[in-house]
Amino acid sequence: MKPVDFHNDVLPLKDKLFRVALRITLDRTEAEDITQETLVRVWERRNEWSQIENLEAWCLTIARRLALDHVQHSKMQMEKEADIADYQLSVTDVPVLPDEALDRQQRVEAVLRLIDQLPEVQRTIIQLRDIEGLRYEEIARITELSETQVKVYLHRARKKIRDFL
Fold first, then answer.
1. 1-77 is classed in which CATH architecture?
2. Which of 42, 55, 118, 143 has its CA 20 to 30 A from that of 107?
3. What is the pLDDT of residues 31-59, one digit of tens each?
């Protein structure tokens, strides 16, 4: 395995770490703290980097565990709405009418609110698969579930969202 450089290999993951923490905690400030704590922990364990097969999955696992610990210890209410400013539609080169853009934005906001109402494990899996684009095997490693369980949870989460819409 190639040597890991914190600035080139770990720091670029901070946005993904933040989004995973935000999806679990539903609190922007806490997600920022968890992201920072994750980066500190990764740095403190730099002597283990050469033994890690997938650095991104390892970092996301640390962030997920920290976020879950935070939720468990603080007993936060899961009804808080997430800050959706970080989740914007990617705009194509095709011009979009203002009404279409507003309608599209409202649909995205509705879907994100529905995702926030899902159980934690389904929220996390949707975040990792549909937003971060990770493979099932990586999600299974991060969530400590089997690939089959990941697929089942993802299917159920998507079905709930479809049913709500």
1. Orthogonal Bundle (1.10)
2. 143
3. 999 999 999 999 998 888 888 888 898 99
